[in-house]
Amino acid sequence: MTMRAGFDYVVIGAGAAGCVVAGRLAAAGARVVVIEAGGSDRNPLIGIPGANVVTGTDPSLNWSYQTQPVASLGQRSLYWAQGRVLGGSGSINGMMYLRGQPEDFDAWSAMGATGWHWDAVLPAFRRSETNERGASDLHGGDGPLHVSKGVATAPVCDLLLEAAGAAGLPVTDDLNRPAAESFGHVDQTLHRGRRSGPAGAWLHPQRRAGRLMVLTHTRALRLIVEHQRVVGVLCRGPEGDQEIRAEAEVILSAGAVNSPALLLQSGIGPARDLRALGLEVVLDLPGVGGNLQNHPCYKIMYTTSAPVTAYAHVRPLGALKAGLDYVLHRAGPLARGLFPTAGLFRVGPQDHQAMQVCMAPALVIRRRPGILGILPQRHGFTLLLNQGIPRSVGQVTLASADPLAAPRIQPGYFGDPADTTDLIEGIRRLQALMREAPLAGVIEAQIQPAGAPRTDGELAADIAASATTHFHPVGTCRMGLGNDAVVTPDLRLRGLDGLRIADASVMPRIVNGNTFAATLMIGERAAEFILGARATHA
Predict the structure, then answer these.
(1) What are the DSSP calls for 47-89, one per residue?
(2) Angle (deg, nearest 10), helices 516-537 and 16-27
C-alpha cells in the first residue's frame, strides 16, 4: 500500500458540489486532490444536449443503481441513474436549471439548518452562474456555469403555456423567479449549443492551470480516522490501494447514496447496524443514511392530431436537418434539452406542497436499448408529474461489509398514503389543464394511462404499477442541530473533526424543483465556509 500526502484538502467525488468545492479551493491557492470513482467526461455525447437520451442512462457513465423492492409500488425495484463520471450527474442530467422556491430554504433554516434561509443562499446561487439575462438581484452575470433562457422547441410547448394562462395559472419568462405557481420555458445549463456542466465550469480550468490533481477510476473504500479526526481516505485505483491524506480537511461529496455508504463503511453511523455487519463502530451517529427523499414521478402521454411536436425531427429528412443544424451552427433540437417547458402548481392541504410538471414535446417510450429504441413513432407529447415535497422517506444502508458492494436503497415511496392522495389530485388538475384551449384542440388521445377519466382507485393502482422517479435523491446526511442530524449547519460532521460533507445528502428536505442547482449552491457555500476557516487560521 502506498501513501499520498502534501494536500491541504481531499475531495471525495467529482459530482456537482465536489467540482465546485475543489475548483474554488484550488483557485484560492489550496493544494487539492479530487478522487472520482468514474472516468473522464471526454465522451463527445456528454456535450451534446440532445444526446441526453443516451448519456442519461449509459452504464459507463453512471452507477445504475436498483432500489430494493418497494411495497407500495407492487414490490417493483426502480432504476436510479446517478452520475459516475467527472461532473457526476451534472454530466448526464437533463440540464434543467430550477433552484427551488424561497420557502424551501426558509424551511431548511427552521428545521435546524440555521443560516440557510433564502436571503443567505441567494448570493451563492448568483455567484455560481452566468445567466443569459445578465446580472440582477436574482441572477449572476460572471459565474462559472452558463445558464441559458428557456425556449420552446416545438409549438406544443407554447400551447401548454397558453392553456395554463387560460386556466388562470401564472405564465412567466423566468421559472426561477419566486412564485407559488408558475408555468414557463425552463432555463438550461447550456452555452452556445453545448452542455455547461460542473466539471467544465469549476474543475477543468483549475486542473489545466496545474492547481489541482484529479484521480479518476479511484474508489474510496473507507475514511481514515485517527484521534477523533478524519485525516484521509483509503482508496483503490489503477495503482492499487493507497492512502490519501489531507493536512486540513476531507470533503465528502459522493452524493446522497454514496456519501452515507462511505460513512457506514468507515464505522460512522447507527451502531447497532454497524455491529450487525461486523464493522467496528468509530462513531455512533444514528442519522446516517436516513431521511432519504426523492421526487416520485408519474408519466402521462398524449398523441396529437396536428404536427406540433418534435416528431418531425426524427423522420429521415427532419433528422438529417437536425444533425446538420447542430454540426454547422450548434443550433436546432440537438442544441436543447429534452424537457424545455415546465410548471409548478399547488395541491393538498399543506401550505407548501407543489407539483412540478415537465413537458417533453415527444412520446418518450423506451421500446429497446439505445437511441433508436426511444425515438417516437408519431406526433405526441409526454408530461412528467413530480411530487414536490413528499412526506414519505426512505433509507440507504449497507448490504455487506464489502466496500465495493452496492448499498441497499429503500426509497420509501408512498409510505405515507397522503402522498398518493396528493399525486392523484395533481393528476386530476393536470388532466383538466389538457382540456383548456388551445391545447385541447390538438390533443387526439391520452395513451398513458389509457382512457380518461378514471376513478381514484384506478389511479392509485396505476401509480403503484407505473410510478418511477426523477433521480433527485437527497437528505441522507442531513444538516441540522438535533441528534438525528449528521452535519452541522457549516457542514462539519457531528462528533469527529476534519470532515465536511457537501452534496445533496445534506439537504434537510427536498426542494420544489430539480435538485442540481441547489446542489451547486451547497458546493459554493461549503467552499465559503472552508475558505473562511482557512483565513481565520492563517
Answers:
(1) G-GGGHHHHTT-TTTB--EEPPPBGGGTTBPPEE--B-BTTGG
(2) 30
Residue written as grid cell 484538502? 9
**Strands (DSSP E) found in 456-510:** 468-469, 499-501
Q: Which one-letter DSSP state was computed for residue 41?
A: S
Helices first, then strands: H and E counts in the chain: 13, 24
| Residue 221 DSSP SS3 | strand
472 flagged as catalytic? yes
d(CA 475, CA 305): 43
Type of residue numbered 431? Q
Among candidate residues 139, 379, 470, 472, the one labeled active-site is 472
Contact 495, 281 (CB under 8 A): no
- Give CA–CA dist 299/448, Å, rounded: 7
Q: What angle do CA 39, 42, 46 make, to 5 degrees?
A: 100
CATH number, domain 1-112+196-292+394-414+471-538: 3.50.50.60
- Nearest residue to 285 via CA among 220, 230, 233, 247: 230
Q: What amino acid is encoded at 199 in this protein?
A: A
The reported pTM is: 0.96
Inter-residue contact 505 to 255 (CB < 8 Å): yes
Whether the CB-CB separation of 44 and 37 falls below 8 Å is answered with: no
Its CATH architecture, for the domain 151-185+296-387+416-466, is 2-Layer Sandwich (3.30)
What are φ and ψ of residue 191, in 5° steps? -150, 115
Q: Where are the domains of the chain?
A: 1-112+196-292+394-414+471-538, 151-185+296-387+416-466
Q: Pinpoint the alpha helices (H) of 467-504.
A: none
- Nearest CA-CA partner of 253 in 106, 88, 105, 494: 88
DSSP 120-133: HHHHHHHHHEEETT
* 132, 134, 136, 141: CA torsion to nearest 10: 90
Rounded mean pLDDT for each run of 10 residues along the chain, 538 residues in total: 87 98 98 98 94 88 96 95 97 96 95 97 98 97 97 96 97 94 97 96 96 97 98 96 97 98 98 97 98 96 93 73 83 90 85 83 68 67 94 96 97 94 93 96 91 84 93 97 94 98 98 95 98 81
Nearest to 62 by CA among 92, 33, 102: 92
Cell numbers for 401, please give them. 461489509
